[in-house]
Write the structure tokens for this entry.
Amino acid sequence: MISRIASIVFRLFFAALSLGAVGWQLFAIHLPGGQSVVDFFSYFTNLGNVLLGVVFLIGAVRLARGRTEASTADAAVRGAAVVYIVFIGIVYSALLGDAQLGGLTPWVNVVCHFVMPIAGVVDWLVWPPLRRIALSTALWWLVFPAVYTVGSLVRGAVTGFYPYPFFHPGVVGGYPRVALYCIAMLVGLLALALLVRWAGNALGARSERRLEAVPQC
């Protein structure tokens, strides 16, 4: 009971923090500054924080109603949210610490790039998934970032707007350098996805809450 209540409070708090930070940046800073909604959601940081906030919110509501993860799809989406938010924190710390990302408000920057990645990891480790995560699921987690990357490069070539400097050939020294950045990040994302899957399965296997799932490969 205590663990259930703690999970509900934890997820509601960080859902409000994440969605509140993104909402503040959008409605108080971005739009009044004359920038578009499309540009705002061209940042993977904003997409990842919204996803995790929604996942936390839905998870808290389900627990409050006495429900848990109803299917392997629920665990898969939750795992994807964790992978993306942790990836956001790592990439920001490694590559973007000194970059100006759309006039990001300092407190929003801290929430989106530091606080929420930590919250995502804590939630995954303390309350591991009830369903076993298949290897194929972890590989599917790479699809959205890959599509996002291609879309950002195409849109940047057409409009001149690149959300991140490592996507901009004029900043990093041409498309070959852009390709190297993208490949390196894809490899890192794959390693992270496999690590998140392993941690969830290992910790979940020790939990008495583990549900028997249909075997997958």
Remarks:
- The radius of gyration is 18 Å.
- The first helix runs from residue 2 to 30.
- The chain has one domain: 2-205.
- Residues 11 and 56 are 5 Å apart (CA to CA).
